[in-house]
Design brief:
Blueprint (H helix, E strand, L loop, with lengths): L7 E5 L1 E14 L6 E14 H10 L4 E7 L3 H10 L4 E8 L4 E7 L2 E8 L3 E2 L4 H8 L4 E4 L5 H4 L1 H6 L4 E4 L13 E2 L3 H11 L76 H19 L4 E4 L5 E4 L5 E3 L12 H15 L3 H17 L9 E2 L13 H14 L4 E6 L6 H12 L3 E7 L1 H8 L8 H9 L6 E5 L5 H7 L3 E5 L10 H6 L3 E5 L7 H10 L10
Parallel strand pairs: 1-4, 1-9, 2-6, 4-5, 9-10, 10-11, 16-17, 16-19, 17-18, 19-20
Antiparallel strand pairs: 2-3, 3-15, 5-8, 6-7, 12-13, 13-14
Helix pairs in contact: 1-8, 6-7, 8-9
């Protein structure tokens, strides 16, 4: 079916992102660093490629103009983009930049960067794509793609949204909307005032970031403890996005980023907004942009046409992985402007889209390629957990309600089935989280489980009411829930007087815990006891 939405051309620097997500329950004996167990590796498009995929997920045709080479990272990214966007390549000098985050649950611990490739030159095909565009998003990650195509971008008559980077050049004159983060706006304004020679970390909130604070690839940092986001501000230690604002790579830290502390009255929020308004006004005039929207993390975005600014607040308080939220903001705004929307309406919709993006899992909810688990992670599981995560992501992106339920499900009985059927009726898909054999053994004792996890998974997947199954090895399901991020976490009514440790986590992204009736008199323990007490069959009698 032909899309009714205006095609979009995304011009910028593509990256390849990896996540290594496991659990951390102890520190290493030789250094005060966490030990990550059972890590699962996933890969996804990053940078301008993520922005292009997000725009395509909105249902519009997307052409990505970016620099790729002959290296393995470039080839992997081509495979990830196949069938999702049309790719127009310019030559890459060096190897494609890739970023690997190491996470414990949903908490980033470390990031590893590889590759320093830059766009080498424009091509006729790339210039033609820009010339024929009806809407353009420039996702500049400081690696030269926007620079080599600058002349073509300056000539276009299409509405342009420019998401700048402090290591890149300013937008070409006449862009419809520029979308710097608060720290980027502060940095650009200081340069214009002659107060900063380069894109360094001078004046950033907090001093605990990585060396250089704003590196050429910090555009999509995940917001871990003491880690600088793209704009250079520290993200809080839990990777929280505050109220879900659309800063490209996450919100500010507790000190409020470059504009003062949150909730501190005149010296904090109000003065911070005035500073952001001054920076926006400066950039509108210096860049000769039609408008500048400064993204303010948990506060939302401040839109300026050069005079009195408009504050667009976030619609709800959410917490989650903010990686890529700025790309979600810019892609939404660019698409709507291409469709003919007013700038104010496009920015408001972009704030809402970025908030929703964080609430629904951020970049990890974008379709990924997951590597199979190591054999010891979940015997017999195969890639069923990866299937579950992708199922949840697809349902969320389609606007559906994801329901999850959990348990050991050892000797599946009528009580289990009734619970799962009721849970499925509460939403659009049901994902069952199953304790691994080791987890069951720790909870139930020696002799359990009676049925190995591979068989339990197979039986559950055979039920019509179950859409996917995920296996977890911990005593409680917080880690797998943080990957699935269900709208509803369903539990049996026998938990009505029990405090669930996972409830605060589920509620942190706007989900809810739902108790469902449980059939009395049904239990695996009871079944096992009766089976053990049954008399042995009489010799010579068979069935």
């Amino acid at each position: 079916m032909t899309s009714t939405r205006t095609p979009l051309v995304v011009v910028g620097d593509a990256l390849l992102d990896h996540d290594l997500c496991g659990r951390a329950e102890r520190l290493a004996p030789d250094a005060p660093v966490p030990v990550v167990h059972g890590a699962r590796r996933s890969s996804r498009p990053g940078g301008a490629a993520l922005a292009a995929c997000l725009a395509a997920a909105d249902g519009r045709p997307v052409t990505l103009v970016t620099a790729l080479g002959d290296d393995s990272a470039s080839q992997t990214l081509r495979e990830l983009l196949a069938g999702r966007v049309e790719l127009v390549e310019v030559p890459l000098e060096g190897t494609l930049s890739s970023k690997t985050r190491v996470l414990a649950g949903d908490r980033p611990l470390l990031r590893l960067d590889d590759g320093e490739g830059r766009a080498r030159a424009a091509t006729g095909a790339a210039e033609d794509a820009i010339t024929g565009a009806r809407g353009i998003l420039v996702a500049d990650y400081g690696r030269g793609t926007a620079d080599v195509l600058r002349d073509a971008l300056a000539r276009t008559q299409a509405p342009v949204v420019w998401d700048p980077h402090v290591r890149g050049r300013p937008p070409v004159p006449g862009v419809r909307l520029a979308t710097p983060s608060a720290q980027e706006a502060r940095t650009f304004a200081r340069r214009l005032a002659g107060g900063e020679r380069s894109g360094g970390a001078e004046g950033l909130a907090g001093s605990g970031g990585f060396d250089g604070a704003i590196d050429s690839g910090a555009a999509h940092d995940s917001g871990g403890a003491g880690e600088f986001n793209r704009s250079g501000g520290l993200v809080d230690s839990g990777g929280s996005y505050g109220t879900g604002g659309p800063d490209r790579s996450g919100g500010f830290d507790a000190s409020g980023g470059p504009y003062g502390p949150h909730g501190s009255g005149e010296s904090g929020d109000e003065e911070g907004l005035r500073a952001a308004a001054r920076d926006a006004r400066t950039l509108v005039r210096a860049w000769r942009a039609r408008a500048v929207a400064v993204t303010l993390g948990e506060r939302g975005a401040l839109l300026s046409h050069g005079e009195t600014p408009l504050l667009v607040p976030t619609p709800a308080a959410v917490a989650g992985d903010p990686c890529g939220a700025g790309d979600r903001f810019a892609a939404t705004a660019a698409g709507l402007l291409a469709d003919g929307a007013l700038t104010e309406a496009a920015v408001q919709a972009a704030v809402h889209a970025a908030t929703r993006y964080v609430a629904e899992g951020g970049a990890r909810a974008v379709a990924t390629v997951e590597q199979p688990d190591p054999p010891e992670a979940a015997p017999g599981d195969g890639d069923t957990t990866g299937d579950a995560v992708r199922t949840a992501a697809r349902l969320r992106s389609a606007g559906g309600t994801v329901v999850a339920a959990g348990g050991c499900f050892d000797l599946l009985h009528a009580g289990h089935v009734a619970l799962l059927q009721a849970a499925r009726r509460a939403g659009d898909c049901l994902i069952v989280c199953v304790n691994s054999d080791d987890s069951v053994r720790r909870r139930k004792g020696a002799g359990r489980p009676l049925v190995p996890v591979a068989d339990r998974v197979r039986v559950l997947r055979a039920l019509e009411c179950v859409d996917a199954v995920a296996v977890f090895d911990e005593d409680t399901p917080e880690r797998i829930l943080s990957e699935l991020r269900p709208h509803i976490w369903a539990k049996g009514g026998d938990y009505a007087r029990t405090e669930l440790p996972e409830q605060p986590l589920v509620e942190s992204w706007g989900g809810q815990v739902l108790l469902l009736p449980y059939l009395d008199g049904r239990s695996t323990t009871g079944l096992a006891r009766r089976a053990a007490q049954s008399p042995a069959p009489t010799a010579g009698r068979t069935r």
